[in-house]
Amino acid sequence: MASKLQHTLWLWLEGFFPRRVWYYLLTKGLVASPADLLEGKTVDASLRINRMHMDMAAGGWKFADPSNPAPQGASTPCLGIHDPATGETRYIYESASILVYLETVYGNREEGGPSATPKNPVDVANMHDIIGVMNLAMLDSGYYTRHAVPVLSAWSGVANEDRSRAAALNARAGMAKNLAKVQGWAAQSLKTTGWLTPGTEGPGLADFSLAAARRYLELTFGWDIFEGDGGKEELKELVAWYERFKGLGWWDAAEEHAVVHPPQLRLGKECREF
Ligand SMILES: N[C@@H](CCC(=O)N[C@@H](CS)C(=O)NCC(=O)O)C(=O)O
Q1: What's the rounded Cα separation, in Å, for the pair 155 and 144?
Q2: What distance in Å separates the CA atoms of residue 148 and residue 165, rounded to the nearest whole number?
Q3: Cα of 78 from ligand 1 centre, angstroms
Q4: Is the shortest distance between the CB of 217 and ligand 1 below 6 Å?
Q5: How far separated are the first and last CA of the chain, in Å rounded?
Q6: Which domain of life does this protein belong to (predicted)?
Q7: Ligand 1 binding pocket includes 220 (Cβ within 6 Å)
Q8: 251 shares a domain with 134
Q9: Could you list the residue range(s) of the whole structural domain that residue 88 is in?
């Protein structure tokens, strides 16, 4: 659908939360291929991607189109919505809200395949239940890595000597509990469609949200978050779901070849002390 509004997505492709967005764009055909993703090309002129790169030397972001940088202080992903009629630009700052907006505005293109959000109001609310508890699990994962990974103390705000094994293990257990909740709440849709998002035919917003986390944490910390404290058995439905997700047509070209994780971010599982 062509929109009169001009949209800009500021994406650091290599990152954690931006992955949620580009998984969505590739699945819905809004970006035609991983090669186009790297160039920031979409199939709709009203949707632009301004790719971000980490400037290690200067300690900030560089933008593929420097004339249109993300708003000061925004994290990535961020979406700008510019109305040429009024000259006003508004912003959406959270990955979960950006997905909802994109699906509302661009989700009904025929070529885009099935809807990524359900129609039934209870399914819609349950999808948000699931994404909400996923986000709590992601918060837990951040506390775990801050306490478990010495090298992160350079920027995490937790000094090396203040890192705590108890805090790390507590956060990891909290994450496993929240992921078990996701698995339980999605049990019905996992059984009927194979996906986490209730009431959709194919992968939906909850699926993009969790797959991004699973992938990024493995790439960066050599951490399979579905291993759980009790081993793989506990989250085995999520293990099977992730294998299914990796079967999506764009996965290999994008995740194994195009968006290559920077070596300086590949800390490996040895980086985790607990
Ligand atoms: N809750 C945010 C988190 C976004 C986030 O933390 N993004 C990271 C990159 S993956 C980032 O931009 N960090 C730098 C910053 O916060 O300035 C979301 O879901 O979009």
Answers
A1: 15
A2: 7
A3: 9
A4: no
A5: 49
A6: Eukaryota
A7: no
A8: yes
A9: 6-112
